[in-house]
């Protein structure tokens, strides 16, 4: 339940925003090159409701309406993503020129993410050259938008793109490589480092990355369960954070990566101005049980060295994810303890939940609880500089199609009518309170 007490005041200059991604909202498929997600969704049975993102929220044609909703909401910033396939098409950057101009005119700070899973079809993260080509694309975007954009995000959730898209095959490009997907992780990290260098060369001085993280809880105190949970936590929390923040992979991982890893790590560990954390829920993990497991719609093979278990005793979202706000405090304080002064200021680049309905009180309860948990992390000494709700509007939710709704704004996908939900009004009121106090 939402408490009647106001949410505590966050530090001066705290950045309040919302997030979206290009493939999930833009539509206008005819005005861009195909992505791996277009190829993936053409396959039968890959998306829950058989849908595609060809139209999605039609944001390319309705961006002025959406920016007006952002302005009415009162956010400081809008984190969106730039579609690499759209940029590759003729005049592709023109749309982002118009979007950034509209945001600036509305007093909303543009915060573009340069890769949010929609790799151009024909490119492959298994190939090292994709990292170089990504840096070239980043330089092109920065050269066009850098006079108005001052805050940049390189990649979104490379862990999920590696695990779900390349190891387990439930996201694009649909590969089932298991641990042979590790080169995908390395090449995305290398692409990030090269992108940081390209952005610095273009004059950028406010650069971060958006990584997904969450506490990993052992299923029991049994040694096998604790070991399995430790390994899962390494994959989720350290495989990407350690090379970025410490300049090396966790023990035993570096030798599994391709190429001259020692030299690549010098690029990967380019200094960051902030570190983005996407947080949704903790994970309970135990020793392998020898059976295939369905975890939130993801089929986990029986031969993995861990098994994901249900977290009992907490409410769950429509996605079946447990609602555990205090785990956000746990995560951030643990990161501060692990990385110390190597951890840059933190920005919560995504936090949100899937619930249906316009009177979405459960979403309000979720956001209220997580913001209080975030403030406790600030009080504990974690330098947190911003918070972005996922998501501005209902959208194409990847392999779930249009079956899950994360938005503060309801979208009728048949008519494209936008209707702010109760959570939109709640967040607008919160932002006014935070700005006025």
From TrEMBL:
Keywords: Carbohydrate metabolism, Cellulose degradation, Glycosidase, Hydrolase, Polysaccharide degradation. GO terms for molecular function: beta-glucosidase activity. It catalyses: Hydrolysis of terminal, non-reducing beta-D-glucosyl residues with release of beta-D-glucose. The keyword Hydrolase applies. Its EC number is 3.2.1.21. This is Beta-glucosidase. Belongs to the glycosyl hydrolase 1 family. Signal peptide: none annotated. SUPFAM superfamilies: (Trans)glycosidases. Pfam families: Glyco_hydro_1. InterPro entries: GH (IPR017853), GH_1_N_CS (IPR033132), Glyco_hydro_1 (IPR001360), Glyco_hydro_1_beta-glucosidase (IPR017736). It comes from Streptomyces edwardsiae. NCBIfam families: BGL.
């Amino acid at each position: 339940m939402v408490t009647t007490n106001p949410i505590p005041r966050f530090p001066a200059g705290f950045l309040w925003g919302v997030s979206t991604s290009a493939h999930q909202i833009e539509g206008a498929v005819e005005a861009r090159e195909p992505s791996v997600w277009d190829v993936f969704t053409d396959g039968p049975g890959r998306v829950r409701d058989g849908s595609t993102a060809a139209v999605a929220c039609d944001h390319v044609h309705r961006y002025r309406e959406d920016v007006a909703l952002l302005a009415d909401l009162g956010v400081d910033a809008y984190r969106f993503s730039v579609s690499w396939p759209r940029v590759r098409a003729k005049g592709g950057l023109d749309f982002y020129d118009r979007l950034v101009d509209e945001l600036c005119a509305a007093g909303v700070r543009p915060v573009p993410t340069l890769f949010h899973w929609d790799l151009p079809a024909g490119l492959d993260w298994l190939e090292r050259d994709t990292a170089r080509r990504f840096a070239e694309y980043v330089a092109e975007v920065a050269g066009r938008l850098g006079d108005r954009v001052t805050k940049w995000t390189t990649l979104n959730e490379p862990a999920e793109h590696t695990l779900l898209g390349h190891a387990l095959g439930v996201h694009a490009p649909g590969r089932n490589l298991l641990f042979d997907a590790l080169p995908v992780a390395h090449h995305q990290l290398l692409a990030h480092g090269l992108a940081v260098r390209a952005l610095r060369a273009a004059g950028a001085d406010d650069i971060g990355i958006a990584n997904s993280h969450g506490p990993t809880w052992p299923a029991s105190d049994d040694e096998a369960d604790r070991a399995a949970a430790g390994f899962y936590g390494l994959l989720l929390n350290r495989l990407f954070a350690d090379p970025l923040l410490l300049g090396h992979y966790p023990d035993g991982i570096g030798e599994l990566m391709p190429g001259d890893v020692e030299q690549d790590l010098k690029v990967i560990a380019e200094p960051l101005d902030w570190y983005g954390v996407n947080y949704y829920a903790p994970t309970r993990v135990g020793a392998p049980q020898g059976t295939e497991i369905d975890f939130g719609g993801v089929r986990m093979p029986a031969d993995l060295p861990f098994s994901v278990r249900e977290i009992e005793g907490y409410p769950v979202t429509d996605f079946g994810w447990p609602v555990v706000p205090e785990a956000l405090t746990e995560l951030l304080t643990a990161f501060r303890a692990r990385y110390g002064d190597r951890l840059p200021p933190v920005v919560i680049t995504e936090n949100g939940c899937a619930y249906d309905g316009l009177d979405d009180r459960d979403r309000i309860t979720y956001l209220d609880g997580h913001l209080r948990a975030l403030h406790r992390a600030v009080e504990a000494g974690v330098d947190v500089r911003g918070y972005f709700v996922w998501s501005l509007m209902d959208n194409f939710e990847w392999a779930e199609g249009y079956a899950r709704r994360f938005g503060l704004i309801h979208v009728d996908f048949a008519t494209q009518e936008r209707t702010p939900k109760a959570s939109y009004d709640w967040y607008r009121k919160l932002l006014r309170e935070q700005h006025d106090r």
